[in-house]
Specification:
single chain, 119 residues, 87% helix
Length: 119
């Protein structure tokens, strides 16, 4: 779990640093660029569409992990909109909340307890 936490911190710093440099060079109008690439049906648009699908999976997984509770739906939306910024922090914090239990980190505490009872 220590390696995962170190990796998450590294990813967060890398993505944040990259975002700062790009924002300083190109401004903060990322959504317009993202949308225009999608509508252009070109390779950057294909990459953006693929990326958006991955973000949807992240959002659905987070919401599912919280059993689609109101908090889970809100966190899922944050996962969809926040990408790596959100996911790295979310996993880092939850790795401590579940005390390093990888199963609980992936499926949530409730499902983890159910799985433990079944085994």
């Amino acid at each position: 779990m220590l390696f995962l936490r170190f990796y998450l911190i590294t990813l967060f710093v890398a993505v944040s640093s990259y975002a700062v440099v790009v924002t300083m060079s190109h401004g903060g109008s990322w959504f317009t660029i993202f949308k225009n690439d999608l509508l252009a049906m070109n390779w950057p648009g294909q990459f953006n569409f693929d990326f958006m699908c991955v973000l949807a999976v992240i959002g659905l997984w987070v919401a599912w992990r919280h059993q689609f509770s109101p908090l889970g739906l809100l966190l899922g939306l944050c996962g969809f909109l926040g990408g790596a910024f959100f996911l790295t922090v979310y996993l880092f914090v939850n790795s401590y909340l579940v005390k390093g239990d990888a199963v609980a980190l992936l499926v949530g505490r409730e499902r983890s307890r159910t799985l433990n009872r079944l085994s």
